[in-house]
Amino acid sequence: MDRVPVTQEGYDALKKELEKLKRVERPQNIKAIEEARAHGDLSENAEFHAAKDRQGFIEGRIGELEFKLANADVIRPDKLPRDRAVFGSRVLLENIDTGEEVEYKLVGPDESDIAKGRISISSPLGKAILGKKPGDELMLVVPGGKRLYELVEIL
Questions:
Q1: pTM to 2 decimal places
Q2: Residue 1: what pLDDT?
Q3: At what angle do helices 8-20 and 46-70 cross, to 10 degrees?
């Protein structure tokens, strides 16, 4: 398995979620299963079945987070080149057709959040930005056609 790049902030968020699942969610769910079991007949006990379903989700998510953390490659953007767009770069793009400017930070797949201006390096736009220098143009094919951007600045 390839290592997955992640910022320190993203790594810490995954670790925090894992700890919450292990220290809070899992024990609460175990207690809920015990309480539901005490009500008797398990075949018609909706609380028991809901708690068991929740247990499956929690255990699955714990496994997923442990895998992600084990394969995470924490990248420090301040140690990377600033002459071209790389993982962790904040970039300013201008839509050549409309003149609209947008700012994005290039992050790993688990950290992307377009509403916060964080796009994954594995997304089509993220892939198009990687390696570009200020002044370079990039074309993105979208369902509505093609969009042409200029990388104005690496912030």
A1: 0.76
A2: 54
A3: 150
